[in-house]
Amino acid sequence: MDPLVILVLCLSCWLLLSLWKQNIGKGKLPSGPHPLPFIGNILQVDVKNIGKSLCNLSKTYGPVFTLYFGMKPAVVLHGYKAVKEALIDLGEEFSARGSFPLAERINKGHGILFANGKRWKEMRRFCLMTLRNLGMGKSDLESRVQEEAYYLMEELRKTNALPCDPTFVLGCAACNMVCSIIFQNRFDYTHQTLLGFLERFHENSKILSSSWVQIYNSFPALIDYLPGSHRKIFKNFTYTYNYILEKIKEHQESLDINNPRDFIDYFLIKMKQENHSQQLEFTIENLIATASDLFGAGTKTTSTTLRYLLKPPEVTAKIQEEIGHVIGRHRSPCMQDRSRMPYMNAVLHEIQRYIDLIPVNLPHAVTRDIKFRNYVIPKGTNVLISLTSVLRDDKEFPNPETFDPAHFLDDNGNFKKSDYFMVFSAGKRICVGESLARMELFLFLTSILQNFTLKPVVDIKDLDTTPVASGFGHIPPPYKICFVPL
Protein backbone atom coordinates (compact mmCIF):
# COMPACT_ATOMS: atom_id res chain seq x y z
CA MET A 1 0.00 0.00 0.00
CA ASP A 2 1.20 3.50 -0.76
CA PRO A 3 2.97 4.98 2.33
CA LEU A 4 1.03 8.23 1.84
CA VAL A 5 -2.28 6.35 2.03
CA ILE A 6 -1.14 4.60 5.21
CA LEU A 7 -0.13 7.94 6.74
CA VAL A 8 -3.49 9.53 5.89
CA LEU A 9 -5.39 6.56 7.39
CA CYS A 10 -3.30 6.67 10.56
CA LEU A 11 -3.81 10.41 10.96
CA SER A 12 -7.54 10.05 10.34
CA CYS A 13 -7.83 7.30 12.96
CA TRP A 14 -5.80 9.37 15.45
CA LEU A 15 -8.01 12.41 14.86
CA LEU A 16 -11.23 10.42 15.28
CA LEU A 17 -9.91 8.74 18.42
CA SER A 18 -8.89 12.12 19.85
CA LEU A 19 -12.33 13.55 19.16
CA TRP A 20 -13.96 10.50 20.70
CA LYS A 21 -11.84 10.75 23.86
CA GLN A 22 -12.56 14.45 24.10
CA ASN A 23 -16.29 13.80 23.78
CA ILE A 24 -16.36 10.91 26.23
CA GLY A 25 -14.55 12.94 28.86
CA LYS A 26 -16.78 16.00 28.62
CA GLY A 27 -18.75 16.85 31.75
CA LYS A 28 -19.41 14.31 34.48
CA LEU A 29 -21.82 12.05 32.70
CA PRO A 30 -23.54 9.11 34.41
CA SER A 31 -21.88 5.73 34.08
CA GLY A 32 -23.07 3.15 31.59
CA PRO A 33 -21.83 0.23 29.52
CA HIS A 34 -18.31 0.86 28.23
CA PRO A 35 -18.48 2.20 24.66
CA LEU A 36 -16.28 1.00 21.83
CA PRO A 37 -14.34 3.58 19.80
CA PHE A 38 -16.34 5.10 16.93
CA ILE A 39 -19.37 2.78 17.24
CA GLY A 40 -20.14 3.40 20.92
CA ASN A 41 -22.71 1.05 22.48
CA ILE A 42 -24.53 0.19 19.26
CA LEU A 43 -23.63 -3.52 19.64
CA GLN A 44 -25.03 -3.57 23.19
CA VAL A 45 -28.40 -2.15 22.19
CA ASP A 46 -31.08 -4.01 20.26
CA VAL A 47 -31.85 -1.44 17.57
CA LYS A 48 -35.05 -3.36 16.78
CA ASN A 49 -36.34 -2.70 20.28
CA ILE A 50 -34.47 0.15 21.96
CA GLY A 51 -37.16 0.55 24.63
CA LYS A 52 -36.64 -2.99 25.90
CA SER A 53 -32.85 -2.56 25.80
CA LEU A 54 -33.09 0.56 27.98
CA CYS A 55 -35.20 -1.31 30.53
CA ASN A 56 -32.66 -4.14 30.67
CA LEU A 57 -29.68 -1.78 31.00
CA SER A 58 -31.37 0.16 33.80
CA LYS A 59 -31.32 -3.00 35.94
CA THR A 60 -27.52 -2.78 35.91
CA TYR A 61 -26.85 0.97 35.72
CA GLY A 62 -29.84 2.45 37.53
CA PRO A 63 -32.38 5.12 36.51
CA VAL A 64 -29.80 7.51 34.97
CA PHE A 65 -27.06 6.19 32.70
CA THR A 66 -25.17 7.04 29.52
CA LEU A 67 -25.14 5.32 26.14
CA TYR A 68 -23.08 6.20 23.09
CA PHE A 69 -24.67 6.05 19.66
CA GLY A 70 -21.66 6.31 17.44
CA MET A 71 -19.43 8.91 19.10
CA LYS A 72 -22.26 10.95 20.63
CA PRO A 73 -23.39 10.37 24.22
CA ALA A 74 -27.04 10.20 25.26
CA VAL A 75 -28.16 10.31 28.88
CA VAL A 76 -30.99 7.86 29.50
CA LEU A 77 -33.72 8.60 32.06
CA HIS A 78 -35.59 5.54 33.28
CA GLY A 79 -38.48 5.55 35.74
CA TYR A 80 -41.03 8.11 36.87
CA LYS A 81 -38.87 9.95 39.40
CA ALA A 82 -36.01 10.65 36.97
CA VAL A 83 -38.39 11.57 34.13
CA LYS A 84 -40.47 13.91 36.30
CA GLU A 85 -37.37 15.56 37.75
CA ALA A 86 -36.10 16.34 34.23
CA LEU A 87 -39.20 17.13 32.18
CA ILE A 88 -41.30 18.85 34.86
CA ASP A 89 -39.09 20.06 37.72
CA LEU A 90 -36.32 21.14 35.32
CA GLY A 91 -38.57 21.57 32.30
CA GLU A 92 -36.82 24.57 30.77
CA GLU A 93 -33.36 23.03 31.04
CA PHE A 94 -34.50 19.79 29.37
CA SER A 95 -36.73 21.43 26.75
CA ALA A 96 -34.38 21.35 23.74
CA ARG A 97 -34.89 18.81 20.96
CA GLY A 98 -32.05 16.34 20.74
CA SER A 99 -30.24 15.31 17.60
CA PHE A 100 -32.37 13.33 15.12
CA PRO A 101 -30.33 13.41 11.89
CA LEU A 102 -33.04 11.95 9.65
CA ALA A 103 -35.55 14.62 10.68
CA GLU A 104 -32.90 17.34 10.47
CA ARG A 105 -32.17 16.29 6.90
CA ILE A 106 -35.88 16.62 6.04
CA ASN A 107 -37.08 19.63 8.04
CA LYS A 108 -33.78 21.55 8.29
CA GLY A 109 -34.72 22.85 11.73
CA HIS A 110 -38.15 24.15 10.69
CA GLY A 111 -41.54 23.27 12.12
CA ILE A 112 -42.35 22.43 15.73
CA LEU A 113 -41.34 18.83 16.44
CA PHE A 114 -37.63 19.15 15.64
CA ALA A 115 -37.05 22.90 15.97
CA ASN A 116 -35.09 24.50 18.79
CA GLY A 117 -34.52 27.80 20.51
CA LYS A 118 -36.50 30.90 19.61
CA ARG A 119 -37.96 29.32 16.47
CA TRP A 120 -39.43 26.41 18.43
CA LYS A 121 -40.88 28.71 21.08
CA GLU A 122 -42.46 30.95 18.43
CA MET A 123 -43.92 28.00 16.49
CA ARG A 124 -45.24 26.27 19.60
CA ARG A 125 -46.82 29.46 20.95
CA PHE A 126 -48.42 30.14 17.56
CA CYS A 127 -49.72 26.55 17.22
CA LEU A 128 -51.31 26.54 20.68
CA MET A 129 -52.95 29.93 20.09
CA THR A 130 -54.18 29.01 16.59
CA LEU A 131 -55.55 25.63 17.63
CA ARG A 132 -57.50 27.39 20.38
CA ASN A 133 -58.79 29.92 17.83
CA LEU A 134 -59.88 27.01 15.65
CA GLY A 135 -61.86 25.51 18.50
CA MET A 136 -59.45 23.24 20.39
CA GLY A 137 -61.29 22.32 23.57
CA LYS A 138 -64.42 24.16 22.41
CA SER A 139 -67.81 23.06 21.13
CA ASP A 140 -67.21 24.02 17.49
CA LEU A 141 -64.27 21.60 17.15
CA GLU A 142 -66.26 18.98 19.06
CA SER A 143 -69.05 19.29 16.49
CA ARG A 144 -66.53 18.61 13.71
CA VAL A 145 -65.30 15.49 15.49
CA GLN A 146 -68.92 14.38 15.93
CA GLU A 147 -69.52 14.96 12.22
CA GLU A 148 -66.48 12.84 11.34
CA ALA A 149 -67.69 10.15 13.76
CA TYR A 150 -70.95 10.04 11.74
CA TYR A 151 -69.03 9.45 8.49
CA LEU A 152 -66.92 6.83 10.23
CA MET A 153 -70.04 4.94 11.34
CA GLU A 154 -71.41 5.06 7.79
CA GLU A 155 -68.16 3.61 6.45
CA LEU A 156 -68.14 0.81 9.02
CA ARG A 157 -71.72 -0.11 8.10
CA LYS A 158 -70.56 -0.63 4.51
CA THR A 159 -68.45 -3.58 5.70
CA ASN A 160 -71.71 -5.54 6.21
CA ALA A 161 -70.30 -7.22 9.32
CA LEU A 162 -67.65 -8.96 7.20
CA PRO A 163 -64.03 -9.24 8.43
CA CYS A 164 -62.01 -6.09 7.75
CA ASP A 165 -58.75 -4.52 8.85
CA PRO A 166 -59.80 -1.29 10.62
CA THR A 167 -56.45 0.42 10.05
CA PHE A 168 -57.50 2.24 6.91
CA VAL A 169 -60.93 3.51 7.95
CA LEU A 170 -59.75 4.67 11.38
CA GLY A 171 -56.79 6.37 9.74
CA CYS A 172 -59.16 8.20 7.39
CA ALA A 173 -61.18 9.57 10.30
CA ALA A 174 -58.11 10.83 12.17
CA CYS A 175 -56.48 12.26 9.02
CA ASN A 176 -59.67 14.09 8.08
CA MET A 177 -59.65 15.89 11.42
CA VAL A 178 -56.15 17.20 10.75
CA CYS A 179 -57.19 18.16 7.20
CA SER A 180 -60.16 20.13 8.54
CA ILE A 181 -57.86 22.12 10.83
CA ILE A 182 -55.13 22.81 8.27
CA PHE A 183 -57.13 23.05 5.00
CA GLN A 184 -60.71 23.53 6.27
CA ASN A 185 -61.97 20.53 4.36
CA ARG A 186 -62.35 16.81 4.76
CA PHE A 187 -62.16 14.09 2.11
CA ASP A 188 -64.37 11.18 1.19
CA TYR A 189 -62.80 7.93 2.41
CA THR A 190 -62.13 6.88 -1.19
CA HIS A 191 -60.47 10.17 -2.22
CA GLN A 192 -57.02 9.62 -3.72
CA THR A 193 -55.49 12.53 -1.78
CA LEU A 194 -56.54 11.02 1.53
CA LEU A 195 -55.35 7.58 0.43
CA GLY A 196 -52.02 9.07 -0.61
CA PHE A 197 -51.49 10.70 2.77
CA LEU A 198 -52.37 7.55 4.70
CA GLU A 199 -50.19 5.31 2.55
CA ARG A 200 -47.17 7.54 3.09
CA PHE A 201 -47.75 8.09 6.81
CA HIS A 202 -48.09 4.35 7.34
CA GLU A 203 -44.95 3.64 5.35
CA ASN A 204 -42.97 6.32 7.21
CA SER A 205 -44.08 4.93 10.58
CA LYS A 206 -42.78 1.49 9.67
CA ILE A 207 -39.48 2.86 8.38
CA LEU A 208 -38.95 5.10 11.42
CA SER A 209 -39.39 2.07 13.68
CA SER A 210 -36.93 -0.03 11.69
CA SER A 211 -33.40 -0.86 12.80
CA TRP A 212 -32.04 0.84 9.65
CA VAL A 213 -33.19 4.28 10.83
CA GLN A 214 -31.65 3.75 14.28
CA ILE A 215 -28.33 3.01 12.55
CA TYR A 216 -28.75 6.01 10.22
CA ASN A 217 -29.22 8.33 13.19
CA SER A 218 -26.08 6.92 14.85
CA PHE A 219 -23.87 7.23 11.75
CA PRO A 220 -25.47 9.90 9.52
CA ALA A 221 -22.21 10.93 7.85
CA LEU A 222 -21.68 7.45 6.44
CA ILE A 223 -25.19 6.29 5.63
CA ASP A 224 -26.08 9.59 3.96
CA TYR A 225 -24.35 8.22 0.86
CA LEU A 226 -25.80 4.69 1.02
CA PRO A 227 -29.08 3.35 -0.35
CA GLY A 228 -31.74 2.28 2.11
CA SER A 229 -35.32 2.63 3.29
CA HIS A 230 -34.57 6.08 4.74
CA ARG A 231 -34.58 7.47 1.20
CA LYS A 232 -38.24 6.47 0.91
CA ILE A 233 -39.01 8.86 3.77
CA PHE A 234 -37.45 11.71 1.78
CA LYS A 235 -39.66 10.81 -1.19
CA ASN A 236 -42.79 10.63 0.96
CA PHE A 237 -42.03 13.98 2.56
CA THR A 238 -41.64 15.55 -0.89
CA TYR A 239 -45.17 14.35 -1.74
CA THR A 240 -46.60 15.97 1.40
CA TYR A 241 -44.46 19.10 0.92
CA ASN A 242 -45.72 19.65 -2.63
CA TYR A 243 -49.37 19.14 -1.68
CA ILE A 244 -49.19 21.58 1.24
CA LEU A 245 -47.34 24.11 -0.94
CA GLU A 246 -50.11 23.88 -3.54
CA LYS A 247 -52.73 24.50 -0.85
CA ILE A 248 -50.77 27.48 0.47
CA LYS A 249 -50.78 29.07 -2.99
CA GLU A 250 -54.55 28.59 -3.20
CA HIS A 251 -54.96 30.17 0.24
CA GLN A 252 -52.78 33.14 -0.71
CA GLU A 253 -55.08 33.92 -3.64
CA SER A 254 -58.28 33.80 -1.57
CA LEU A 255 -56.98 35.07 1.80
CA ASP A 256 -59.25 37.38 3.80
CA ILE A 257 -57.23 38.68 6.74
CA ASN A 258 -60.46 39.55 8.60
CA ASN A 259 -61.91 36.06 8.24
CA PRO A 260 -59.28 33.32 8.68
CA ARG A 261 -60.64 29.89 7.79
CA ASP A 262 -57.96 27.45 8.95
CA PHE A 263 -54.39 26.97 10.15
CA ILE A 264 -52.85 28.05 6.85
CA ASP A 265 -54.83 31.30 6.84
CA TYR A 266 -53.76 32.16 10.39
CA PHE A 267 -50.12 31.49 9.47
CA LEU A 268 -50.29 33.61 6.30
CA ILE A 269 -51.83 36.48 8.27
CA LYS A 270 -49.00 36.19 10.82
CA MET A 271 -46.51 36.31 7.93
CA LYS A 272 -48.04 39.57 6.70
CA GLN A 273 -47.98 41.08 10.19
CA GLU A 274 -44.29 40.28 10.61
CA ASN A 275 -43.28 41.04 7.05
CA HIS A 276 -41.03 43.86 8.24
CA SER A 277 -39.71 41.99 11.26
CA GLN A 278 -36.07 41.02 11.49
CA GLN A 279 -36.73 37.57 12.99
CA LEU A 280 -38.36 36.01 9.87
CA GLU A 281 -39.60 32.93 11.73
CA PHE A 282 -42.95 32.91 9.94
CA THR A 283 -41.89 31.71 6.52
CA ILE A 284 -43.33 29.35 3.91
CA GLU A 285 -40.72 26.74 4.91
CA ASN A 286 -41.84 26.91 8.54
CA LEU A 287 -45.50 26.73 7.53
CA ILE A 288 -44.98 23.59 5.44
CA ALA A 289 -42.85 21.90 8.10
CA THR A 290 -45.28 22.77 10.91
CA ALA A 291 -48.28 21.51 8.92
CA SER A 292 -46.38 18.30 8.15
CA ASP A 293 -45.58 17.87 11.85
CA LEU A 294 -49.26 18.26 12.75
CA PHE A 295 -50.19 15.63 10.15
CA GLY A 296 -47.59 13.16 11.39
CA ALA A 297 -48.46 13.61 15.05
CA GLY A 298 -52.23 13.80 14.64
CA THR A 299 -52.95 11.01 12.17
CA LYS A 300 -50.99 7.91 13.00
CA THR A 301 -51.09 8.11 16.80
CA THR A 302 -54.87 8.36 17.08
CA SER A 303 -55.62 5.72 14.46
CA THR A 304 -53.08 3.30 15.93
CA THR A 305 -54.51 3.71 19.42
CA LEU A 306 -58.03 3.04 18.15
CA ARG A 307 -56.91 -0.18 16.46
CA TYR A 308 -56.78 -1.95 19.82
CA LEU A 309 -60.53 -2.55 19.81
CA LEU A 310 -60.68 -4.40 22.42
CA LYS A 311 -59.13 -7.73 23.30
CA PRO A 312 -61.20 -8.67 26.41
CA PRO A 313 -64.88 -9.08 25.33
CA GLU A 314 -66.15 -8.44 28.87
CA VAL A 315 -64.63 -4.95 28.67
CA THR A 316 -66.58 -4.15 25.51
CA ALA A 317 -69.79 -5.43 27.06
CA LYS A 318 -69.32 -3.30 30.17
CA ILE A 319 -68.64 -0.19 28.06
CA GLN A 320 -71.80 -0.78 26.03
CA GLU A 321 -73.78 -1.11 29.24
CA GLU A 322 -72.41 2.25 30.40
CA ILE A 323 -73.18 3.82 26.99
CA GLY A 324 -76.74 2.56 27.19
CA HIS A 325 -77.18 4.01 30.67
CA VAL A 326 -75.61 7.44 30.01
CA ILE A 327 -76.22 8.14 26.28
CA GLY A 328 -78.66 5.59 24.93
CA ARG A 329 -78.89 4.44 21.32
CA HIS A 330 -80.21 7.50 19.49
CA ARG A 331 -78.15 10.46 20.69
CA SER A 332 -74.59 11.16 19.49
CA PRO A 333 -71.94 11.06 22.22
CA CYS A 334 -70.58 14.42 23.41
CA MET A 335 -67.64 15.37 25.61
CA GLN A 336 -69.91 16.15 28.57
CA ASP A 337 -70.71 12.44 28.68
CA ARG A 338 -67.12 11.55 29.57
CA SER A 339 -67.39 12.74 33.18
CA ARG A 340 -70.38 10.41 33.64
CA MET A 341 -68.63 7.44 32.03
CA PRO A 342 -65.76 6.54 34.39
CA TYR A 343 -65.35 3.03 32.99
CA MET A 344 -65.07 4.21 29.38
CA ASN A 345 -62.60 6.89 30.46
CA ALA A 346 -60.55 4.28 32.32
CA VAL A 347 -60.53 1.95 29.30
CA LEU A 348 -59.29 4.71 26.98
CA HIS A 349 -56.45 5.51 29.38
CA GLU A 350 -55.60 1.85 29.81
CA ILE A 351 -55.49 1.24 26.05
CA GLN A 352 -53.00 4.07 25.66
CA ARG A 353 -50.95 2.95 28.65
CA TYR A 354 -50.95 -0.68 27.59
CA ILE A 355 -49.97 -0.25 23.94
CA ASP A 356 -47.14 2.12 24.92
CA LEU A 357 -47.23 3.67 21.46
CA ILE A 358 -44.02 5.74 21.74
CA PRO A 359 -41.74 3.67 24.03
CA VAL A 360 -38.82 6.11 23.85
CA ASN A 361 -39.77 9.76 23.51
CA LEU A 362 -38.28 11.86 20.73
CA PRO A 363 -34.80 12.81 21.95
CA HIS A 364 -34.53 15.80 24.24
CA ALA A 365 -31.37 17.82 24.93
CA VAL A 366 -30.27 20.13 27.70
CA THR A 367 -30.27 23.87 26.99
CA ARG A 368 -27.23 24.57 29.19
CA ASP A 369 -24.66 22.75 31.30
CA ILE A 370 -26.85 21.29 34.03
CA LYS A 371 -26.19 19.51 37.30
CA PHE A 372 -28.60 16.61 37.47
CA ARG A 373 -28.41 14.57 40.65
CA ASN A 374 -24.67 13.93 41.05
CA TYR A 375 -23.81 14.40 37.40
CA VAL A 376 -22.97 17.28 35.08
CA ILE A 377 -24.65 17.07 31.68
CA PRO A 378 -23.07 19.40 29.09
CA LYS A 379 -25.23 21.72 27.00
CA GLY A 380 -26.59 20.02 23.87
CA THR A 381 -26.24 16.46 25.18
CA ASN A 382 -28.99 14.16 23.96
CA VAL A 383 -31.43 12.86 26.59
CA LEU A 384 -33.50 9.73 25.96
CA ILE A 385 -36.74 9.42 27.94
CA SER A 386 -38.06 5.91 28.57
CA LEU A 387 -41.84 6.43 28.59
CA THR A 388 -42.23 2.65 28.87
CA SER A 389 -40.63 2.74 32.30
CA VAL A 390 -43.28 5.22 33.47
CA LEU A 391 -46.30 3.56 31.86
CA ARG A 392 -45.22 0.09 33.03
CA ASP A 393 -44.31 1.05 36.61
CA ASP A 394 -45.48 -1.89 38.74
CA LYS A 395 -45.97 0.23 41.87
CA GLU A 396 -48.39 2.59 40.14
CA PHE A 397 -49.94 -0.08 37.88
CA PRO A 398 -50.00 -3.54 39.49
CA ASN A 399 -49.36 -6.27 36.89
CA PRO A 400 -48.46 -3.64 34.26
CA GLU A 401 -48.11 -6.20 31.46
CA THR A 402 -51.82 -7.02 31.82
CA PHE A 403 -54.59 -4.98 30.20
CA ASP A 404 -56.75 -3.89 33.15
CA PRO A 405 -59.00 -0.79 33.23
CA ALA A 406 -58.91 -1.01 37.05
CA HIS A 407 -55.52 0.71 36.81
CA PHE A 408 -57.52 3.93 36.38
CA LEU A 409 -60.45 3.23 38.74
CA ASP A 410 -60.69 3.68 42.50
CA ASP A 411 -62.41 1.27 44.90
CA ASN A 412 -65.78 2.96 44.24
CA GLY A 413 -65.53 2.62 40.46
CA ASN A 414 -64.74 6.30 39.89
CA PHE A 415 -62.12 7.39 37.37
CA LYS A 416 -58.69 7.81 38.97
CA LYS A 417 -56.09 10.13 37.45
CA SER A 418 -52.43 9.17 37.45
CA ASP A 419 -49.37 11.41 37.16
CA TYR A 420 -47.69 8.43 35.48
CA PHE A 421 -49.96 8.75 32.44
CA MET A 422 -47.38 10.33 30.11
CA VAL A 423 -48.47 8.98 26.73
CA PHE A 424 -48.37 12.54 25.35
CA SER A 425 -44.98 13.15 27.03
CA ALA A 426 -44.72 15.85 29.73
CA GLY A 427 -43.29 19.28 30.40
CA LYS A 428 -42.43 21.92 27.80
CA ARG A 429 -42.53 19.49 24.85
CA ILE A 430 -45.87 17.86 25.65
CA CYS A 431 -47.95 17.18 22.53
CA VAL A 432 -49.74 20.35 21.32
CA GLY A 433 -52.65 18.28 19.98
CA GLU A 434 -53.30 16.36 23.19
CA SER A 435 -56.82 17.72 23.75
CA LEU A 436 -57.84 16.98 20.14
CA ALA A 437 -56.49 13.43 20.40
CA ARG A 438 -58.39 12.85 23.64
CA MET A 439 -61.57 14.19 22.05
CA GLU A 440 -61.19 11.96 18.99
CA LEU A 441 -60.48 8.85 21.03
CA PHE A 442 -63.52 9.33 23.24
CA LEU A 443 -66.04 10.33 20.55
CA PHE A 444 -64.86 7.86 17.88
CA LEU A 445 -64.58 4.83 20.14
CA THR A 446 -67.80 5.60 22.04
CA SER A 447 -69.65 6.00 18.73
CA ILE A 448 -68.28 2.69 17.44
CA LEU A 449 -69.37 0.76 20.55
CA GLN A 450 -72.73 2.55 20.57
CA ASN A 451 -73.45 1.23 17.09
CA PHE A 452 -71.53 -2.03 16.75
CA THR A 453 -70.55 -5.20 18.51
CA LEU A 454 -66.93 -6.13 17.81
CA LYS A 455 -66.39 -9.70 16.72
CA PRO A 456 -62.80 -10.94 16.25
CA VAL A 457 -62.13 -13.30 13.35
CA VAL A 458 -59.92 -15.57 15.48
CA ASP A 459 -60.34 -16.88 18.99
CA ILE A 460 -59.72 -14.19 21.60
CA LYS A 461 -56.82 -16.22 23.01
CA ASP A 462 -55.12 -16.20 19.59
CA LEU A 463 -55.48 -12.45 19.05
CA ASP A 464 -51.84 -11.33 19.19
CA THR A 465 -51.20 -7.63 19.84
CA THR A 466 -47.40 -7.95 20.06
CA PRO A 467 -45.83 -5.11 18.02
CA VAL A 468 -44.25 -6.15 14.73
CA ALA A 469 -41.72 -3.31 15.12
CA SER A 470 -40.54 -1.41 18.18
CA GLY A 471 -38.16 1.34 17.13
CA PHE A 472 -39.39 4.94 17.24
CA GLY A 473 -42.93 3.62 17.81
CA HIS A 474 -44.71 0.36 18.45
CA ILE A 475 -46.25 -0.84 15.19
CA PRO A 476 -49.15 -3.23 15.91
CA PRO A 477 -49.66 -6.34 13.79
CA PRO A 478 -52.39 -6.34 11.13
CA TYR A 479 -55.60 -8.03 12.17
CA LYS A 480 -59.23 -8.27 11.10
CA ILE A 481 -62.43 -7.69 13.00
CA CYS A 482 -66.17 -7.71 12.25
CA PHE A 483 -68.29 -4.65 13.03
CA VAL A 484 -71.72 -6.18 13.69
CA PRO A 485 -74.50 -3.52 13.84
CA LEU A 486 -76.52 -3.43 17.04
TrEMBL record:
Signal peptide segment: 1-25
Q: What is its main location?
A: endoplasmic reticulum
Q: How does it sit in the membrane?
A: Peripheral membrane protein
Q: Which InterPro entries match?
A: Cyt_P450 (IPR001128), Cyt_P450_CS (IPR017972), Cyt_P450_E_grp-I (IPR002401), Cyt_P450_sf (IPR036396), Cytochrome_P450_fam2 (IPR050182)
Q: Which GO terms describe its molecular function?
A: arachidonate epoxygenase activity; caffeine oxidase activity; estrogen 16-alpha-hydroxylase activity; heme binding; iron ion binding; retinoic acid 4-hydroxylase activity
Q: Name the source's superkingdom.
A: Eukaryota
Q: Which residues bind heme?
A: C431
Keyword Iron among record annotations: yes
Cofactor(s) this protein requires: heme
Q: Name one GO cellular component term.
A: plasma membrane
The compartments listed are:
Endoplasmic reticulum membrane; Microsome membrane
EC nos: 1.14.14.1
Q: Which BP terms does GO give this entry?
A: epoxygenase P450 pathway; estrogen metabolic process; icosanoid biosynthetic process; lipid hydroxylation; oxidative demethylation; retinoic acid metabolic process; xenobiotic catabolic process
Q: In the UniProt record, does the keyword Metal-binding occur? A: yes
According to its UniProt record, this protein's enzyme class is: oxidoreductase
Q: Which UniProt keywords apply?
A: Endoplasmic reticulum, Heme, Iron, Membrane, Metal-binding, Microsome, Monooxygenase, Oxidoreductase, Signal
PANTHER family found in the cross-reference section: CYTOCHROME P450 2C18, CYTOCHROME P450 508A4-RELATED
Q: Name the family the entry cites.
A: Belongs to the cytochrome P450 family.
Q: Mind telling me what this protein is named?
A: unspecific monooxygenase
Naturally occurring in which organism (per UniProt): Panthera tigris altaica
